[in-house]
Amino acid sequence: MTLTLCLGSMTLVSGQNSGNAQEEGWVSLFNGKNLDGWKVGENADTFSVENGYIKVAGKRAHLYYMGPVENHNFKNFEFKAQVMTKPSANSGIYIHTKYEEGGWPSQGYEVQVNNTQSDWKRTGSLYNIVDVKEQYVPDNEWYTEYVKVEGKRIIIKINDMVVVDYTEPENAKRDDGQKNRLLSSGTFALQGHDPGSVIFYKDIMVKPLP
Q: Which residues contact 130 (CB under 8 A, 6 or more apart)?
């Protein structure tokens, strides 16, 4: 639960697109003001908007992008967001997922957001598929989390560092609990993991690819 091209090349203001972002094909998924275009089922008060960013704090919940960009159905894309974790916080960014009212998303992959929580699978992990043990960014600082999906390949970057480069094999086999952890197409979701986790997201952007 990002690219020399995509990191550090522009400064974005609280969910607003810059001219460069538009020229390069990046589209904002979050307007910096409210959760228009996003949907959450149970425990909706886990998500709020403060000072131009999404604050995640509360019981388990998932905030799904359900807006008009690509009719919220993405296959090949580049995605990036500015993220900041508070100490002992756990979250995630789901890709190729679909809206569900409650529970953990059953479809798609989770890109981990966790710098210091007790789960050893750190920020940038393709959760339970390619897990990252190293902590690359600290709590209390904004960093860029980037995901690229093209065909069967997933690249994850933290700031400008590649931490996962994974190609899903043909006829990939998953355990029963992971049977839908496969590439197909779908939307994005932000995870509220538990009441002890506080995370902030802003400048949530996507660039659809052919």
A: 164, 166
Q: Is the dihedral of CA 164, 208, 171, 175 positive or negative?
A: positive
Tell me which residue of 94, 114, 113 sits closest to 105, measured CA to CA. 94
Q: Provide the residue type at 50 as one letter.
A: E
DSSP per position, 149-202: EETTEEEEEETTEEEEEEEPPTT----GGGTT-S---BEEEEEE--TT-EEEEE
Phi and psi dihedrals of 145, rounded to 5?
Answer: -110, 125
* Residue where the block lists tokens 């931490």: 163
Rg of the chain over Cα atoms, rounded to whole angstroms, equals 15
Tell me the three state secondary structure of residue 177: helix
Identify residue 122 by its one-letter amino acid code: R
What is the mean pLDDT of each successive set of 10 residues along the chain, which is 210 residues long?
34 40 83 98 97 98 98 98 98 98 96 97 97 98 98 97 97 82 96 98 98
pLDDT value of residue 12: 35
Q: For residues 98 and 66, give the distance between their C-alpha atoms in angstroms, rounded to a whole number.
A: 9
Alpha carbons 62 and 88: distance in angstroms, whole number: 19
Quick one: tokens of 54? Answer: 């999404």
